[in-house]
Here is the input.
Amino acid sequence: MDTKKIRNFSIIAHIDHGKSTLADRMLEVTKTIESRKMRDQVLDNMELERERGITIKMQPVRMEHNFEGETYELNLIDTPGHIDFSYEVSRALKAVEGSILLVDATQGVQAQTLTTLAMARESGLVIIPVLSKIDSPLARVSEVKKEVALLLECDEDEILTVSGKTGEGVSSLLDEVIKRVPAPLEKYIDSGGFRALIFDFKYSNHKGVIVFVRVLDGEVSKNMNLVFKSADEKFIALEVGTFSPDEKPKDVLGPGSIGYIVTGIKKPGIASVGDTVVDIKHNLPGIPGYFKPWPVVWASIYPESQDDFNELKTALGKLRLSDSAFSFEEESSGLLGRGFRVGFLGMLHLEIITERLRREFDLELVVTSPSITYEVKLKNGKNEVVYSPHLFPSDGLIEEVMEPWVDVKIITPSDYLGSLMQLCFEHEAEVGETLNFGDNRSQIGMMMPLRELMRNFFDELKGITSGYASISYEIGELRHAEVTRIDILVAEEIVPAFTRVVSKRQAAKEAEDAVEKLYGILPRQQFTTKIQGYALGRILSSRTLSAFRKDVLMHGSKVVGGGDISRKKKLLEKQKKGKARLKESGKVNIPHEVFLKMMKKGEN
Here is the structure.
């Protein structure tokens, strides 16, 4: 294919604005997929994606479209919309020259739209504004057009309208992609060697790691000797091809093309989004701007049965072959046994990985409360990076604690501003500028601790705004943190799985809530059991769980010893000493279901 007849573009939008549905109609219009094989969300391969109606892994596809008597190659990359996957989106945007900015005509511009649009603009992409869902009776086409025109500083006539449901306007949109999006840049074409950007990858049991690439320079064919620039790993291309949307082998991938390379590599951690593949002979430099996404949320994962430990280890290793963004290391707990400390890009990423472990590998898991990374300066001069609550030092040893903050943008109907400000105060946010966003909506900028964003902020925001607010955030700077470690003691022994790091001002309430919850679900023991919340050098909350009562004076239906009081006293004294011994040993039986209930929010 002549490079001048190639168009590479992506679709960017907020979650649930119809990206995947529009992609379905494009595949139909270009006859890339036969009508009898069409299904909803055809580019979403995971059952989890289809069930939730969100894109988790980006998916490229090659289409052919006739325009003014010529056939053009259109390469579309359908990207994830959630903030957790923003690095993947940013690298995918480096692989294309244009982007369709899709805005739901019933909802208007949302917070995530602004974040992704900023990425596209930084990459120098041509933006094609499009309104979706125009067939809906709730569509506000003229109002939302004004909103988008103001945002992009363009004429309303430049904004296209489509319906992913009916297919209206889709063919015209493809024509506009050919007209507005430039062909692959000529500066990449004649450097004399092969170079390609990795924007995604997956793992096959038979073929190993398959990298999805945008060819920037030269061309690649089967049996070429290649190397990953950042990983410095050499391999031979076992197969190259394009996506239709299934993998279709080709003899060669030329400049400007989007396709795949089968590497045969079966080791985790080699392939990663943003790395560059080059041929060994010319060894061109890598594409600038590459970095490995760093986990910001951590959680411990244990198998419910220790017999499944090796199976969990194998499952994590297999998932890491297709998702290099999470990391894990082995750890052990006296009560939960052996497990893994796992790092994630965000809360949705955590949810997706744990759900995949359960579904794809049939594992029953115990997942601890998520935590973040703290940088702790100790009084002895040492610095520590702490990502597990039970390893957080006690207050007496700490000189200073630093924690990550996030830059948050929220778009909400103006009617909810009062309630939202109260919520922000409760979560230690520093509220910045509030802008009128039109149509009785406001955009609020703020900075807040990542710890507080994770403390049920999303659910509370959804609750107070009846689901109408949208949010996006970026990890920002490290700041001084007023936090402390809360330990939950059962029979005067710390249970590490219940340990948390919280704001000092929230410590008393958090301790009380945790103790009350555990008091309500912990089975009674054969001795009186104290449940205590300890922080800031003292006990902040305490409840006593009464023991099982057993009447040692009864034997069957008869009273032991008849009326002999000395015999009764002897039996009661023996029982008292036995309970005292049990209490001293501190052996409290905490069933697995108690851990599970403690991890789940709001369950008592």
About this structure: DSSP finds 14 helices and 33 strands in the chain.
